[in-house]
Amino acid sequence: MQLITTHRSTDFDAFASLVAGTLLYRGAIPLLPKFINPNVKAFSSIHKDLFEMYSVDDVDFHAVEKLIVVDANRWGRLEKMDGLKERPDLEVDVWDHHEDASDLNPQWICQELTGATITLMIREIKKRKIKLTPMQATLFLIGLYEDTGHLTFTSTTAEDVHAAAYLMDNNADLTVLNTFLQPGYGIKQKDTLFEMLKSPPREKIGNYSVSINTIHISGHISNLSLVVHMYREILNLDAAFGIFVHDDNNKCIIIGRSAVDAIDIGSIMRSMGGGGHPGAGSAMLKSVNPDALYEWIIELLQGNQQASVQVSDLMSYPVITVTSDTPMEKVAEILRTEGCTGVPVVDNDQLVGVISRRDFRKVKGSARMKNPVKAFMSTKNITITPEASPIEASRLMVKHDIGRLPVVKNDRIIGIISRSDAMLYFYDLFPH
Fold this sequence. Notes:
Layout: E1 2-5, H1 12-24, E2 29-31, H2 38-46, E3 66-70, H3 82-85, E4 91-96, E5 108-111, H4 117-128, H5 134-148, H6 158-169, H7 174-180, H8 187-198, E6 203-205, E7 208-217, H9 224-234, E8 239-246, E9 251-258, H10 265-271, E10 275-277, E11 280-286, H11 290-304, H12 311-314, H13 328-338, E12 342-347, E13 350-356, H14 390-400, E14 404-409, E15 412-418, H15 419-426
Parallel strand pairs: 1-2, 1-3, 3-4, 4-5, 7-8
Antiparallel strand pairs: 6-7, 8-9, 9-11, 10-11, 12-13, 14-15
């Protein structure tokens, strides 16, 4: 017997990959864990005649010769597989898009960093020219969209986009997709979010604002990940963690969301026995002290941030500056000679303004070109520190509609970063 299974708290990517496995391994038994996400449960209940699934009670594990694991690669994420874990004769195949190492000792593995596991399986389905029904294509697209945030998460690859196009060509139904990917936000979620917002703790980890909020809950509350996502957005945090303590069963669910590359939620959650992606992840632990979890997350944040490029790595220096009494005609000559679009105005080592080519529009008549730069410069001094990230620099330039930012340390200007400097980094032209 061949058995296909996936991780507990099964999401749509895992469920879709489970179904795809039945196409790639003809005759294999798809085993669906008991604990699955509510939207997956709703979908599988409605479509149970199309996607037949089995539970652990339906399987004779002594007869299993081969185990196929999809969207997971560790024993700890599987449900009631201890008997198979001890079988030295068991053949194991793995399909997974997470980057952590597998402890399944697979004889064959397809593990690549794509936005969704179903993308890897679609590659093989296309290679074998397996024909898909419209409902199979729809399910696969739901799984792909959920794990890539409708192709918007930074973990999304070009292959994910091509896979989505292939599924659309195979008549995937967007109406069905939108129905089951609608997030459930009801009274329980609202009450939990309001409780988190009453006194939200904040931490400064390096240059990033982080909140780790511990909330005691009772009973089942679905879509806590949506609550954490909204919490992070409302407070405009770089990263947010919810530690949800179930007082009735002594379990703690940790859910994290990040908006910056330097804080890899998936890596942190894997260290805690869970999993996820750079922007999102979760873990579940039993019989633990929530205060200890808080300290653990802090330690992981401090120790596992990716080495990231800072503004100091991108800025130009030494900085070409002018004094406030420099005539505009002299400034025009400097901009023309140096090939720059603006320069800081500095008096006595203090930044007093910025003059750009755009400011020359204020100069009416050639006679006024002899006037000092202080008559035309912008005195709204928007600056940035050398330790800030390129993302922060770009946000400031976009917010204030400016093309450059003076880099200031100890009240002295030490460099300048332009919009084009930031673009070199974002388009991967900077050697980092």
